[in-house]
Amino acid sequence: MVREQDAEEIRPEDRYEDLIVELAGAAGVTLPQAKRGFGRTALRFQNKIFVMLVRGQLVLKLPAERVDALVAAGDGVRFDANKGTPMREWLSLDPGSGQSWLLLAREALDFARSGQKLAR
């Protein structure tokens, strides 16, 4: 397992694998599927992507206000899926950011859970 303080020395793919191991048993979470195309590295909650690795960067779905704060702090930029429009609830974490990948991923999972429809 990668320790956060060693993160700069570890490949993003290895850090992401550790993240997958940590979240693998969480209720409602499905692991990346062996398929091609967008979202192939994604962790999903009830079929909705909440975290993925894209071009070596951790990408997370978080509340827009949280993304605003992280962008303002210099921890990343809004994710753009090569469509020319940055997405307001998606953050592409700067590789040099000191933010914990695991804590942010758990925050993204909590955000995904909060959007879940309540059964009637």
**Chain-averaged pLDDT:** 86
- Classify the beta-strand content into a percent band: 15-25%
The structural class is: alpha+beta
Number of helical segments?
A: 3
The arrangement of helices and strands along the chain is HEEEEHEEH
**Main beta-sheet annotation:** 6 strands, antiparallel
What is the strand arrangement across the widest sheet? Answer: 1-2-3-4-6-5
Q: Whole-number radius of gyration?
A: 14 Å
> Roughly what percent helix?
25-40%
* Uncertain residue ranges: none
The general outline is globular
Number of strands: 6
The span between the termini is 41 Å
Give a structural overview.
The chain contains three helices and six strands; from the N terminus they run H-E-E-E-E-H-E-E-H. With 120 residues, it is α+β, with helices and mostly antiparallel strands. It has a six-stranded antiparallel sheet with strand order 1-2-3-4-6-5, with helices on one face. It starts with 11 loop residues before the first helix and ends in a 6-residue tail after the last helix. The mean pLDDT is 86.
